[in-house]
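Handout, tutorial session.
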Amino acid sequence: KRDVGKMAFVGSCAWAASGAGGETALSRRHGRCVVRGGRGVRGGRSAVAMAAAQPETTVTDLYSPFWSYAQEVLRARLPDLDDYPIPDGYVHKEAMTGKGARQSLVTTDSYGYCTGKLRQIRTAHVQGGKALQVLNFVMFPDMKYDLPFFGADLVTLPGGHLIALDMQPLFHTDDYKKQFSEPLMPAFEKHKVNLPWGGDFPEEAKPFFSPCFLWTRPSEDETVQTHVFEAFKDYLNKYLDYVEAAEEVTDPAELDKIKERQLAYLSYRAEKDPARGMFKRFYGDEWTEEYIHGFLFDLERKIEDGSYKVPTGSAA
């Protein structure tokens, strides 16, 4: 029996279900994935060259339109949008996985931005043809603001799709819910009609979800391209509404609470990240751990090396 709960953690919720090695090799062409059946190395030819020599079939590139839309909206609505540094060796990564006819090319592309109110806006886009497509898009607010985290985890596997959208709350007080969950509730109610609940998730993860957590497992590509895409747009734009309206917190006690909750969230996510096993299979232990701690969930590292100064509201 599958552990559905472990696949449901938004941000990288379903990556653990990706399994090892896919069945196809992937390259991108005009919003479509061009897939070639892979074979082993023969006569000194590389695996990539052998894969490239195979007949092509097409696989719909589901999540590039999501990220293209997000980038357009971010540029339009965040006037101070700037690049966020990505460590060397992590902007693009690829590997051949599997053996024989099951050999496939998996690529991971990383993107990073930031603003005065958003410490890190980052995306990991994993493509592996029919075997795997993932878009993991998260926004981490600066610690001077009590904003929730934005998380979109869009995963496609051979057996279907695993979709999670949410604004993970810092706090669960009535005032916080009124400020951030209640305005989002109409969108949640609208979209859950076409995107029904996908199943239970771990008890330990529940403090990191809002009442508007949209978690669903559609079976058809068309549902992802229509209903999921519309929900993604609504959640993203509502979050940016919150960002635009956010006011800086200056009270030292409140800033301490924000720091505590952000670090708890990041520590949990880095420790429990279900993508770890998948990335280790594809790219090895060293690359994976550095990617998780040096980019995906890098706040502790940034604080330790002094590149991010924790706001205190008064002298430290």
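The second record follows below. Compare its token runs with those of the first.
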Amino acid sequence: RDSRCRRRRMRRALAGVVKTCVQASLSLPSPTPIRASATVPRHHSKRHGAFRGSLAMPKRKKPLAPATPSPVKPGPRTARVEAAVPAVDGTFGDVVVADALRELSARDPKLGELIARCGELPRIFACQEARRAKHEPNRAFRSLARAIVFQQLNGTAAATIFGRVLRCVGAEDDISALTPDAIVDADEAAMRACGLSQRKHEYLVALARAFHPAHSDFPLSDESLEAMEDDEVMSALVALRGVGPWSVHMFQMFYLNRPDVLPTKDFGVRKGVMRLYGLRDMPSEGKVEEIAERWRPHRTLASMYMWQAADEGKSSGQMQGGDGGKGEKGKAKKEEDHWAGTKKAKKR
């Protein structure tokens, strides 16, 4: 009971203090206005309206939008589409690219929409540009050696190791010095110190011996591979240690520019087929072959557009490709990194 009485007395005292303060404030003159105010906002009370209205700061006007977009502030993000690049001479191997793309578009409307949207891909340009150097000796050997070094590795790490190998054999400033002789004669310990595994070193030596006249009864060469049919190239190269079907397909596409190659083991091609044709699951190799029948005899170009379809669906860069063949269990390497050398690897 005593505590209730104390609380009641405290409330009365506090109410008296508040009443006194209010009365004192009413007896004070209004302060000098800082900025004249034409009207008093309706929501202000009569008691405090003059005081509030006099101190109210004017609202800042919103700046007018510029007539042209700001050169600094970027615009809204849009889906990245690989820009069209004109071909070197309008051909891929012995095929006129424009004619082949028109034929593919007529046979496959979905693929035709993709071709119309993206134009002629930089991949095609890179392949044609690489063919300009076909007169250089040992190009086939260098392409396959690079593919072996890049197997199962992050692109940056693989490029570093490959650069060390070039330096080890004296080809750092002139890549044409990377020859079968240079690999065969290189010190194994020095090659291993470059970052090569024991198995990859063995693969490189086996590849060099297959291209070396002194170590093979039927040595491979640029000329012999150019003269072979597609199935003969496959048979000749998969017989080498460390080279599987996927690597051969990439070699046929990017080095030989064969127009009708379908890399069914390539992850990117299968992913592109799934996205472009609205499949719920990743298609099997058989399903890819079934869909690709309508692409003959331009399956190489169509496969490049499947990579484009897969790229458009990625939120971040990933590797493409994979090999069920020997020495290539890893999930895939960016095909340009191995054969055309036009892009930095983005890994999955």
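Points raised in discussion: The radius of gyration is 36 Å.
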